[in-house]
Every structure is written in C-alpha cells, then in structure tokens.
Amino acid sequence: MNKRRRLTGTVKSNKMDKTVIVEVTRTYQHPLYHKVVRSVKAYKAHDEIGCNVGDKVVIVESAPISKTVTWVVESIVKVEIRQESIEAIEAAIEKAEDLAAEESEDTVEIFEDVIEEELEEVAEIVEDEEGAA
C-alpha cells in the first residue's frame, strides 16, 4: 500500500467543474485541557467520478492539480439518497394506484408493467450514480 494519506468526508459542494469540496471531521483530545475537540476542515478534491452533495467519499493526497487542489476523490463510500429518486418512486406508486382504481383484468397487467418500467428507471438512476463511483 502506498503512503498517500486517505481521508473520509462528506461532499459539501460540487458546483465547480471536476472539483468538489469535501468536509472532513476529526476529533482529538486537547493536550492541556483533555477535552475532546471536534475539528472540521474542508478540502478541495479533483473529481473524475461525479460526486453529488451529501455523498460520503474517500479522498487521497496527490501531486498538485491546481493552486488549491491537491487531493483526488478515490471512491464513493455511501451515495446520498436524492430527492429525484424518491419522487420517481412516488410517481410510480401514484400511477399504479390510479390504474388499480379502474378495476379491470387488463389493469392488473398494465399495473405490473408500469411498476416494472418505473423500477427500471429508478434502477438506472441508481446504477448511474453508483457507476460513477
């Protein structure tokens, strides 16, 4: 294993092109007062993966990429559940309930087809987010 430092933090901003701001929290005991202190520091990291705000990521030290960027996103540890995914699931449920209200034999088949289509769309969204990892 190489000697590059690795830190785990949360993406706080991804508004820059191929750069994210990762907030890393560390706790330590104060040397004189022995109180546990929480320290938060923000690092700019180069992002080829395509992280989103709220994702938990591992960043690794690298050669300087720019004046302020000397870290690279290595991997996404945990993908934050996004509002778009929740809305897609809710829309699928609403469509299914509307179709079920019609109460016909064809409705059951359509109902199953719509659920499958919506679940495939949600799966594609999740795969795209995880595939970027």
What does this structure look like?
This protein is of the alpha+beta class and 133 residues long. The protein folds into 2 domains: 6-78, Nucleic acid-binding proteins (OB fold (Dihydrolipoamide Acetyltransferase, E2P)), CATH 2.40.50.140; 83-131. It has helices spanning 83-101, 105-131; strands spanning 6-16, 19-29, 36-46, 56-61, 71-78. Helix 1 (83-101) runs antiparallel to helix 2 (105-131).
Task: Compile the SSE list and pairings.
Blueprint: E1 6-16, E2 19-29, E3 36-46, E4 56-61, E5 71-78, H1 83-101, H2 105-131
Parallel strand pairs: 3-5
Antiparallel strand pairs: 1-2, 1-4, 2-3, 4-5
Summary, kept brief:
This protein is α+β, with helices and mostly antiparallel strands.
**CATH topology description of the largest domain:** OB fold (Dihydrolipoamide Acetyltransferase, E2P)
Query: What fraction, in percent, of the residue positions are helical?
Result: 25-40%
Shape: elongated
Number of domains: 2
Quick tags:
2 domains; 133 residues; 2 helices; elongated; OB fold (Dihydrolipoamide Acetyltransferase, E2P); alpha+beta
